[in-house]
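Lecture notes, part 5. Sequence design as translation. It can be helpful to think of inverse folding as translation between two languages: the language of shapes and the language of residues. The source text, in structure tokens, appears below.
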């Protein structure tokens, strides 16, 4: 496992790219992933080749590359394939970080869902 960034706090979220060296999309994604790491210094980033680190990655059953895992001491926030676009990953990370303090409009929506769930059930 190669950590791209080492300075954030111990309780920082980890953003892990589960990849394979033979995957062309993964090789093209790595510089973009490193760019996102530099843009989010409060998070920790790691690049894990699932073949080099099968002992760690086998439990994830990676079917599509690249697969992103975002997790921390509070649990897993995201795990799944993601197109290799730096902007998409960066937007998701910004959303996850701001999710710790809900926006007023989110609180309003959640209150309505709690008050009258029958109107919104699927």
């Amino acid at each position: 496992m190669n950590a791209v960034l080492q300075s954030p706090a111990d309780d920082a979220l980890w953003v892990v790219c589960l990849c394979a060296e033979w995957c062309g999309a993964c090789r093209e994604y790595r510089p973009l992933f490193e760019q996102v790491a530099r843009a989010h210094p409060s998070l920790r980033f790691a690049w894990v080749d699932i073949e080099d680190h099968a002992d760690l990655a086998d439990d994830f059953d990676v079917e599509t590359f690249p697969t992103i895992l975002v997790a921390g001491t509070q649990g897993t926030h995201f795990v799944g394939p993601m197109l290799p676009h730096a902007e998409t990953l960066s937007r998701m990370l910004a959303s996850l970080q701001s999710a710790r303090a809900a926006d007023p409009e989110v609180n309003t929506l959640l209150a309505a869902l709690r008050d009258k769930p029958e109107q919104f059930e699927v």
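The translated text above is only one of many valid answers, since several sequences can fold into similar shapes. Residues 113 and 119 are 8 Å apart (CA to CA).
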